[in-house]
UniProtKB/TrEMBL annotation:
Single GO biological process annotation from the record: amino acid transport
One Pfam family, short name: BPD_transp_1
Membrane topology type: Multi-pass membrane protein
Subcellular location: Cell inner membrane; Cell membrane
Keyword Transport carried by entry: yes
Protein name: General L-amino acid transport system permease protein
InterPro entries, A to Z: AA_ABC_transptr_permease_3TM, ArtM/GltK/GlnP/TcyL/YhdX-like, MetI-like, MetI-like_sf
GO molecular-function terms, A-Z: transmembrane transporter activity
Gene3D superfamilies: MetI-like
Family, as annotated: Belongs to the binding-protein-dependent transport system permease family. HisMQ subfamily.
GO cellular component: ATP-binding cassette (ABC) transporter complex
Annotated ABC transmembrane type-1 domain residues: 150-344
The UniProt record lists the keyword Transmembrane: yes
Length: 356
């Protein structure tokens, strides 16, 4: 319900939507009571009777009345940093903060040009990688095999997005090429990759490719998985961008041609900016899906945040606290995904105002 409506109008709409008949009133009250009971039960379990400190671990167990958040107090470093060396975990925390600050800075309208936004994210990603990898500026080198937890999840997501978005633009432009053999070939490639499960692509790039590639092209398994994931992302995003382009009136490009603008000027200054604006909701949705699907890499042996959570309760001391660990990991996913969705809503509002 729109909060800008007058109070009397909102009350009238509320009565009409939820209390117009006896049945509507009973259903509304019934679900309201059920929701209140569920919320109170969660509050009682998660707050009132919870154990918060690892020093009070003896109060936890199968018979405890509340949540055992003591497992988070004792194992949060493992969940957030995974296998990263203990004495170097400040680098992992700082690297995650750099990516978060980069995302926050990209909300500033000053960065809303292709060059500035690309420069910002490339600089943020390079800083992230240098902090995580080390080997320069006096930092101890830590290979990707020892990365884990939240930092590995963010690394995979940022890498896939930075590689996949430009590739998606290229794919979308090739698919709408005026040369039929280029457009049809690109269409077959995009449709073929989109028809495959992401997990099968990850397995192919992680396990099968080393048998068919020359030794100098094999590289690290993590990098191969990111390349496969970026290709998968690019194919889906290419269709989103192509849909945004098709939603534009055809006369705009024809008018640009009549004015003598070249192909890249038409694409870069007229077509793509409007296409991204039209495709913004679907693009944000695709980014949210991409972030959540980073958890699939746990199946092929990477120690991302979900695997770190499994390890946090995977011993005899904390094996009863799996619900609390998954709740904590779920909260982390919620924070990042909710921030992405709110950023998308903010962009939509700004662009709607700009169109007026």
């Amino acid at each position: 319900m729109d909060a800008t409506l007058p109070r009397q109008t909102r009350l009238r709409a509320l009565r009409t939507d939820y209390f117009s008949t006896r049945l509507d009133t009973l259903v509304t009250l019934g679900f309201g009571l059920l929701a209140a009971w569920v919320l109170w039960s969660l509050f009682d379990w998660g707050v009132l009777h919870a154990v918060w400190s690892a020093e009070n671990r003896e109060a936890c167990g199968h018979g405890a009345e509340g949540a055992c958040w003591a497992v988070i107090d004792a194992r949060w470093r493992l969940i957030l940093f995974g296998l990263y060396p203990f004495e170097e975990q400040w680098r992992s925390a700082l690297a995650c903060a750099v990516i978060v600050l980069t995302g926050g800075a990209s909300c500033a309208p000053w960065f809303w040009t292709a060059r500035r936004l690309a420069a910002l994210w490339v600089a943020g990603f390079v800083t992230f990688y240098v902090l995580m990898r080390g080997g320069v500026f006096g930092l101890t080198e830590v290979s990707e095999q020892n990365w884990g937890g939240l930092s590995l999840t963010i690394f995979i997501f940022a890498s896939v997005t930075l590689l996949g978005m430009p590739l998606a633009i290229v794919f979308a432009l090739l698919r709408r090429s005026q040369l039929p053999w280029i457009a049809r070939t690109m269409g077959v490639i995009i449709d073929a990759i989109r028809s495959l499960p992401l997990l099968s692509i990850m397995f192919t790039f992680a396990i099968v490719l080393p048998f068919v590639l020359p030794g100098w092209m094999i590289g690290d398994k993590l990098h191969r998985v990111i390349a496969g994931y970026a290709l998968f992302f690019a194919c889906y995003q290419a269709e989103i961008i192509r849909g945004g382009i098709q939603s534009l009136p055809g006369g705009q490009e024809e008018a640009a041609q009549a004015l003598g603008l070249g192909y890249w000027h038409r694409i870069g200054h007229i077509i793509l900016p409007q296409a991204f604006r039209n495709a913004l909701p679907a693009t944000i949705n695709q980014l949210v899906i991409t972030f959540k699907e980073t958890s699939l890499v746990v199946i092929i042996g990477f120690f991302e945040i979900l695997a770190s959570g499994n390890a946090a309760y995977g011993n005899s001391e904390w094996n009863f606290a799996h619900v609390e660990v998954y709740a904590f990991v779920g909260l982390i996913y919620f924070v990042f995904v909710f921030a992405l969705s709110r950023y998308g809503a903010y962009l939509e509002r700004r662009m709607a105002v700009a169109e007026r």
